[in-house]
Write a structure and sequence with these properties.
- Helix content is 88%, strand content 0%.
- The chain is mainly α and 94 residues long.
- Helix 1 runs antiparallel to helix 2 and helix 2 runs antiparallel to helix 3.
Length: 94
């Protein structure tokens, strides 16, 4: 496999991970009959975003690089808030 094909596969893999986050969110919401954003949504966002960011850097696409890097910051920040909230709740129960 040549370099271009490998990077194309990487790009599609990143897009697949990114798409999985919506499937996870949709299924969780359907089960609970309300809008839910499960923790897996943020992990798929980070994995897919990181892979797509790498692909964008390889392609030297500044628009794509900016979009993915901004998204990654937001995904990590949301995980930080979730973990912080979990620690506060655990502390309150103790």
């Amino acid at each position: 496999m040549d370099k271009e094909t490998i990077w194309l596969v990487i790009g599609f893999l990143g897009q697949a991970c990114f798409t999985c986050r919506f499937l996870v969110q949709w299924l969780a919401s359907e089960r609970q009959k309300k809008s839910i954003i499960p923790l897996a949504f943020w992990y798929f966002s980070i994995v897919g975003g990181a892979i797509l960011f790498s692909y964008a850097v390889y392609r030297r696409d500044p628009v794509f690089i900016l979009g993915q890097s901004t998204g990654l910051l937001i995904y990590f920040r949301n995980l930080h808030f979730i973990k912080k909230d979990q620690r506060v709740k655990a502390y309150a129960r103790a």
